Protein 1
Amino acid sequence: MKMILLLIVILAFPITASADQEAARLAELDQFWAEVSRTVKEGDFEGYSATCHAEAVLVTGTKKLSYPLTQALARWKTEFDDTKSGVRESSATFRFSQRLGDATTAHETAILLYSFRVGDGEMKHEYIHLEALLLKKDDCWKIIMEYQKAPATEEEWNALN
């Protein structure tokens, strides 16, 4: 009987350790996405850029294009500057439907809710199906590919609650 109990503990330990490792990995990724959200909200362009790998790629399903994320960053800088100065209000929130990976890689499937208002204008909400590939190097996660697949709906967003 003691032998059986010992065998169960030995066999169960790797599963528990693996579950603990996965929980820690997801906590790190949650911190990554929280940092992305913070930088968008505060208009912190340098902080946002720091979440991106130097060779990252942006893929847009609606435009059927793929290009270096540095080009998108150059285009987005004005929005970050306007947010930082208070001319614009911006936020980015993520809800995940699938999170795959290991200790140094991640494939995240989500819906991004990007909300913004310029001046006294109406708050606008864009729901976007998103896939992201991330790499972890030197204890730091960086996005290497952002695939903005297609528009999503508020209903799809709410379903991921």
Note: The chain has one domain: 2-159.
Protein 2
Amino acid sequence: MKSVSGKMDEEKLEEITPALKAKLDEFAEKGNLLEDEGQYDEAIEAWEEGLHLIPGPQQFYSETIWFLAAIGDVYVKKGMYAQAHQCFDQARGNLSGDGYGNPFIMLRLGECCLEIGDEKNAVEYLLRAYMMEGKEIFEPDEDGEDDGQKYFDFLKAHVDHIE
């Protein structure tokens, strides 16, 4: 499946058909509803079921990022930062091109790195999120959750000229 250059030959990737897309959407929605009800473990199970439907190698599909980010976000809510870091790091490395350029992925990776004691990478990822979205990405969401101030203060303490 690899070409002479060592990159995946995208023409040989299995297509996400409309029927598969519909199933993925069902699992995504089911997980979202369960998360809204505070049923975090069940939400993770729903998203993992959807993730398992994505053909391999999964790192070439942007749909993989959706599920990994959703699972990782619940792990953050549960304070399970090592598990969340695994999800967001995998999403970051997604070869569909969406992971590294996603400010939410960068923010969560930075938060997880700080929480697990990896300050060097915390600065890198938080700075990437800041550069993409500005200070707004650290502000509370519509529910008033996400205390991004802690992470913004950390970033300001480690990087000059951030206001």
Note: Confidence is low (pLDDT under 50) at residues 1-11.
Protein 3
Amino acid sequence: MKDAIHLRYVTFLAFTAALGGLLFGFDIAIITGAGPFIARTFALGDIGLGSAYSSLLFGCVVGSFIAGRLTDRWGRRTLLLYVALLFALTSVGTALAPRLGIFISIRFLGGIAVGGVSLLSPMYVAEVAPPSIRGRMGTLYQLSIVIGIMVSFGINYFLRDMGPNNWRWMFLTGVLPSAVFLLFVLLAPETPRFLAMKGRAKDALRVLERIGDKRGAESQLAEIVATLPKGAAAGRGLLRPGVRRALAVSAGLAILIQVSGINTIIDYAPVVFQSAGWKIEGALASTIVVGITQFVFTLVSLWAIDKYGRKPLYIIGSFGMTLSLAGLMAAIVAGHFFGTIVLVLILAYLAFFSACIGPVFWTLVPEIFPNDVRGRAMTVPVLVQWVANAIVVLFFPYAFHVIGKVSTFGFLGLMSLSQGIFIWLWIPETKNKRLEEIEQYWHNLRRPVPAGGAGE
């Protein structure tokens, strides 16, 4: 018999954390349309433009590290409050920046907020959502990222003709979603697993009872407490064999999701479309179609992730992305890299990512770590993916224009293929499993498999 679930309350909690994803998507994508105007304002070349784009991402590296160090000490909710405030302040700061150096510095600070929320929001959702709907609740985070991206694209398009300072207004609009996020976090509780880890069992039980029923809450709390290491095991933390294996696997996923090119396609969509013969207005308008495509196919993942599981979706998405990038290479070689062909292939790439990869990554990563080290352990994949993201985004303009389009898309395609093979070989299925069950999987990998037995 399945545990009772108070779906409305669980959805509220997941939605609250997912609002951090909206700000994530907004801050990542707002520069997509603002970039061409910033380049004119500050007279930027390829590396200067890459620096303006990637400064936020290098801040994300720092933000994820800080959040990972502090979340097991201060809590998920407390840090989310600070993150919401930082989002609002940096939205104003980037809008008012008088010089490129100041702009880059404030974007770096904004990246600290994005990096923090990219660790905290998925972790919060994973720790409050029951197993049977954890995939769908986790997908709300990716859906919010996509909505943030889509809103950014719309703002960029509608402010395109507001004069040389239009990009300042684009950044300033981030204040409103930051305020909404802050309000919702104020209304949400701390996660029951963090409360249990801090010895606040009664508070944890109250939250679990609001999520499900009293009997299920008591048994779940007992299961959570039982998985918290005691004595010498508690001191080993990230050095425990099962945790080390989970860290290595998560780092591999984190690198591959970025070097397969998703943020280069999102951030530099106008650049790619302009290289395919589109004028600036058409290139900005096409980004709205990009945002809508991501939104629609992320909705597909809401239906599929708890039905088919994380692993099959990831494999299908990776191979679909590979085929789309191969199509772009073929279009370049055949001399047909223009107009509708490029748009369709990019939309196909984004459809596979949005339905299969993005939602699964942010759902899967917090699932695979033990309760007592989840905050610190999450630092590794989140930090690694931001480092990979920043490097790829920084050098994409140079690779695209100097090394060549075929080589650039070929590299991204090879990484997409590698991603599918990696998850097929190394990742367990986590569908419908309690976080404590998944923790036990990594622990059991240290033991020999009995004759006739099989691993995951």
Note: The CA atoms of residues 209 and 215 lie 8 Å apart.
